[in-house]
Design brief:
heterodimer; A: 195 residues; mainly alpha; Fumarate Reductase Cytochrome B subunit; two-stranded antiparallel sheet; disordered N terminus; disordered C terminus; B: 368 residues; alpha+beta; Catalase HpII,  Chain A, domain 1; 10-stranded antiparallel sheet; 9 helices; 10 strands
Amino acid sequence: MNTSTTIQGRQFPASMRLLHWLMAAMVLSMLGVGVAMVASLGSYHALVSFHRPLGILILVLVVVRYVNRRFSALPPFPDTMSSQERSIASASELLFYALLFVQPLVGWGMLSAARYPIVLFGSLHLFPFLPHSVMLYAVLRKTHTVFAYLLFLMFLAHFGAILFHTLIVRDGLFNRMAPWRVRSIVLPGSAPAKE
Amino acid sequence: MRSKSTTLTERQATSLSTCSSLIRLAAIGVVLLSVAAAFLYLGGWFSPRALTPARFVDAFERVDGIHSGFRRNHAKGVGVSGFFESNGQGTRLSKAVVFRTGRIPVIGRFSLSGGDPYVADAPDTVRGLGLLFRLPDGEEWRTAMVNLPVFPVKTPQAFYEFLFASQPDPQTNKPDPKKMGAFLAGHPETVQAFKIIQSRPVSSGFENSTYNSLIAFHFVDANGASVPVRWSMAPVQPFAAANPMASTQGNKNYLFDALIASIHQHALEWRLMITVGQPGDVTDDSNIPWPDGREQVDVGTLELDSIESDDASPARDINFDPAVLPAGMAPSDDPLLSARSAVYSQSFTRRAGEAKEPSAVTPSEVRK
């Protein structure tokens, strides 16, 4: 009778939304902890001890998330997005996945090259996967900072785009990824999603 | 049935005026700027006077200069290696694998404090011993000790100020008494610590020095019970008093050369002594010694039988970060521990990317 039959298909699947919000919280915490710990004396050790295992957890989750995404049906872009905006959105999604995968590896790699023990918690630790080389460490350490700032800028752009769609275009784009179940998304002008 | 066209009409009916769009756009800008500002705030961008690891290492560089590839403190040193023979006595205090009976490979580094890698050896310069224990399960224990009985300062901020107060005046080659006087006037705890430091006899060399953790830690046993501890490496080599004139006799490396000669004669040994704290003993102040009579547990022997120039030793490329602890050891609330970890890391990162200059104690000097 009404469009509710097509609505379910217009939100991302629950597993994708769960992973999105879980990782959003983790990645933002990581960026905040990362930038705070390098400027901190008193909390440095506590923050580093938190940063390392969380980074490895993000590495695991981003793999899970990518596989999950490959096997999920995605809602179509709304008609309010131009083809140019769609390609930017797709490219930035890909870049997000790449950075979220590479950044923890750079972190693990730089600790490997410096021969810092990569302690997760208690006696559980990871093996070093690069040779002991302080020059290599120096390069990876810089890369880790550059990637962190890049990730933060990408987050700002992503956040800005969603605010723009929500407050100005008002096409309900946010509802596609809303953490809760949205029963009636009205995406104006968009074609009904395929069942 | 709601059709597509109805939805569009509804949306157009409520579409935003230009003014309203601009206000909303501005609001978005404000939100994004606030998020960026929060991020920068966390990174300390709005507190340019706060003490950070970078500013701490800048201070070492200002006092001692930048020496490419060298540690910013304890720049002059040599690498050593050997093993730790655990006697099993430590297992009742800590479940750390290092305390199970057996032998564990160790690499280490003897050093002199200060950021000048070519400084002349002198009896009163603080001597350091950094150690890395490679536990059989892949864990590590790192410790950086010095031959002082207590730390001269209590907090990172005081250490930072102390660095400048004790900077040698280029004219007299001694700290400016006015600056040091002003520092001591504001830090009675340092005056107390100096009394303790100056009342202890200084030994003749690296090989018969006692090296102390100074900072307190916690040992956690297999049942999860925790005790505060401090540790020391007590030399088996007999004590001999330092010759106060030794540094004026021409050999700028006399302390290192004596260490090299003695380690070539026979392996050098230290006993790892754990001092067990009582409830009420301070754990957040390396400035204050624990009362006499605390239980001392001899948990094993460190044996160092090989020595190498910094240029050739793997120890050069290791950060002897005192916060690297195996399961069974935990940090205390001493603010100096986290600060040392942070500053060591900053120093390590800076020197890692620099060209490595030859060290004062050359590979040929170390050869037998």
